[in-house]
Amino acid sequence: MPAATAAFLSRRKPLHPGARALAVTQDRLSEKSFVADCGLSVAPFRAVDSLADLEAAVAVLGRPSVLKTRRFGYDGKGQVKILPGTDLAEAHAAIGRSPAVLEGFVTFAREVSVVAARGADGSFAAFDLCENEHRDHILAFTRIPAQVSAATEAAAIEAARKIGAALGYVGVFAVEMFIVGEGEQESVVVNEIAPRVHNSGHWTSEGAQTSQFHQHVRAVCGFPLGSAQRRGRVEMENLIGDAALRWRELLAEPGAHLHLYGKREARPGRKMGHVTRVFPEQG
Which terminus, N or C, of the chain has the lesser number of Cβ atoms within 10 Å? Predict the structure, then answer.
């Protein structure tokens, strides 16, 4: 939905999530500037509107770095890695010479996300920090709890709370982050905001007291937010492409909760469903 359409509607009827959240998150440059203005860490970045901009940005941020279109990119689409041997003119052409942002490369230990809800009254509830494993730029597994310190998890959730408050957000959203360093050196770097229920939160349907979908409805309807407490240790596996053909095997697996999305064709890289497994907490 164009941000202008959302703004038009919001002037006439309540709109949740709001037009500002859409406008900020649809543009990578706006989003990164917004997060930095919240006092949160992001990868170093530069705006790129031309080949000359790209050359200047690479001179500052170095290689490796990542060139991303400002709009319409997801699951690795609309981006090119800038490596030592990368021809910058070819990289710029590969993204259609679209307005873009160059991001400095972040050497991270883990990828995580906070899935949270915020009500119109400012109430806030976050699910436990999710640890995400990507393959070919697509989320493959989400595991909860994340293998980080309690202090790092608290910092990640506080970052999401700040973002939600600054946007005046109402509903469920996710903040994808990098964990940089290990142990006492861990820190959180915000990667991007998803203004919606999120793939890394699908586990909540069986793995939490309130699913992210129910939580979203509660938030936008002005109902009290539900408990985000986890029911155990959880693993969510995305079924990508032909992996969905394992559905008989998964249905026979004790404790596996299978969700198929009803898509007719299993293409490579296409999310066809997911399976969630909930395990007892370790003693």
Answer: C
Q: Which two tokens stand for residue 7?
A: 């703004």
One-letter amino acid of 22: L
Torsion of CA 213, 214, 215, 219, to 10 degrees: 110
Domain ranges in the chain are: 3-104, 110-279
Q: Which amino acid is at 114?
A: V
CA atoms within 13 A on the CB side of 188: 27
Angle at the Cα of 183 from the Cα atoms of 182 and 185, rounded to 5 degrees: 70
- Reported as a single tens digit per residue, the pLDDT across 242-273 is 999 999 999 999 999 999 999 999 999 999 99
Phi, psi of 277 (to 5 degrees): -125, 130
Give the CATH number of domain 110-279: 3.30.470.20
Region 3-104: CATH code = 3.30.1490.20
% residues pLDDT > 70 (the chain): 98
Per-residue pLDDT at 75? 62
State the SS3 of the chain.
CCHHHHHHHHCCCCCCCCHHHHHHHCCHHHHHHHHHHCCCCECCEEEECCHHHHHHHHHHHCCCEEEEECCCCCCCCCEEEECCCCCHHHHHHHCCCCCEEEEECCCCCEEEEEEEEECCCCCEEECCCEEEEEECCEEEEEEECCCCCHHHHHHHHHHHHHHHHHHCCCEEEEEEEEEECCHHHCEEEEEEEECCCCHHHCCHHHHECCCHHHHHHHHHHCCCCCCCCECCEEEEEEEEHHHHHHHHHHHCCCCEEEEECCCCCCCCCCEEEEEEEEECCCC
Are the C-beta atoms of 225 and 219 separated by less than 8 Å? Answer: yes
